[in-house]
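In response to the reviewer comment on reproducibility (Comment 2.3), we provide here a single inverse folding case reported in full, input and output, so that an independent group could reproduce the run without further information from us. The structure tokens appear first.
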């Protein structure tokens, strides 16, 4: 965990969403985290899931992480994420009038999957690890957070990639990547 990645308190009563991302790079979790750190923007997700199923945590669940960034104007109302006051917004750069809402980070846990869109399947070990991580987060909060992907928050964002679509549907309905 790195303190530069924590951007304010996120007490359990504000937890609503799990936001899934692709790293869009081939580097493993450690190299992704070093890249985030070096960028100086304070960007990070709470967890990064490697292709071999190992998981690295970068930010405590009770802290805000900058993983979702700005979303479509109107999405704070749509998602019920209107209170941005707990977020220090350090390093956050506005991207235009179409995407003014910044509330999602204050109400969510971010998970990055090491994956490049269009590069082929997600390994079973990585998906199994995500199953277990979501179960851990559900148990931590004692409730089931709504699962979305990054492009649901910001239209036109690349992650998660199209090859994740059936898994996302299964996570949203059954909280696991495969429905038996
Ligand atoms: Zn993302």
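Designed residues, in position order:
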């Amino acid at each position: 965990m790195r303190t530069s990645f924590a951007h304010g308190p996120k007490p359990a009563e504000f937890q609503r969403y799990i936001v899934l991302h692709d790293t869009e790079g081939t580097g493993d979790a450690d190299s992704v985290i070093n890249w985030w750190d070096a960028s100086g923007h304070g960007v990070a997700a709470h967890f990064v899931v490697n292709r071999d199923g190992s998981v690295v945590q970068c930010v405590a669940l009770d802290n805000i992480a900058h993983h979702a960034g700005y979303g479509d104007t109107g999405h704070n109302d749509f998602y019920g994420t209107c209170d941005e006051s707990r977020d220090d917004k350090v390093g956050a750069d506005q991207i235009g009038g179409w995407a003014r809402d910044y509330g999602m980070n204050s109400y969510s846990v971010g998970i990055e999957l090491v994956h490049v869109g269009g590069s082929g399947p997600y390994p079973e070990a990585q998906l199994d690890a995500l199953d277990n991580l979501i179960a851990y987060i559900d148990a931590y909060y004692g409730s089931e957070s709504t699962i979305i992907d990054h492009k649901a928050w910001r239209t036109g964002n690349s992650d998660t990639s199209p090859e994740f679509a059936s898994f996302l549907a299964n996570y949203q309905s059954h909280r696991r990547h495969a429905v038996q």
